[in-house]
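Give me the fold.
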Amino acid sequence: MLFSEAQEAFKKHLIYREMSGETVKGYMKDLRCFNRYMTDVYNGAIYVEDITTDDIEEYMHYLLDERELAPRSRNRYLFSLRSFLNYAVKKQWVEHNVASEVDPVKVMEEKKVALTEEEIDELLATIKHKIVKFSVAFLYYTGMRVNEAHNITFEDIDNERNRLLVNGKGKKQRYIPIAKSLKPHLENYLTNIRGPIDSPYLLATKKTGRLSAGYINYELHRATKELGWDKNVTCHALRRSFATNLLRKRVDVFKISKLLGHSSIKTTTVYLQLNENELQTDIDKL
């Protein structure tokens, strides 16, 4: 089967499994990159059954030497190919998954960033863009994924029950209570900042009717640099800070997991980041 035809079938499979739009888009982007590479190498369309382990190893070298991608990014391309070829095996287009024979690149563990409450206050005080400042507060006080916050509409705000309806991964919905600390930010934003923008989305600009994660991350980087912090603060770091600060306040990890929308508590533990001083304080209680 032609690679391009198999890719379209795989896309339908992912949609059938109700994978998120961003996940499907990511897989298709990775597979198109591999298809272009193979088409250039063999000067023509490729068939799934003709792909070899050597092809994939050479592709991984290409991603390193020509594209100069970081180890984590190269692994993502490899894992996308593995998933695609696993599907090809199930459909009996190929006998085995040749990508499974290629070892992933070793990735150095990056230090996870979790800001303290004091650092969150400093960050908010430094951000000049008013809509972004509210967005940062909104992300931190709700613990939402940035894509979840990006899609919050006014209909999702339930003032009577003091909660937000969140559409999470895999079309799973959950409610998040509106924190007392978020309320003044939300009221100020709706009254004085957002204005009459013709958009159903809470996080919106007059120009586009939406606020992108890229722009929030840009402003976070700028503010971090101004503060002189040697840490990579992103939208995802705000979600980790939300979880970690709740843990610091002795909130049960199962409740934190539910607020984050995790299906497994193991996933939640990845987000929790306590420093050595806090661990020392805890162990001294013995």
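The mean pLDDT is 89.
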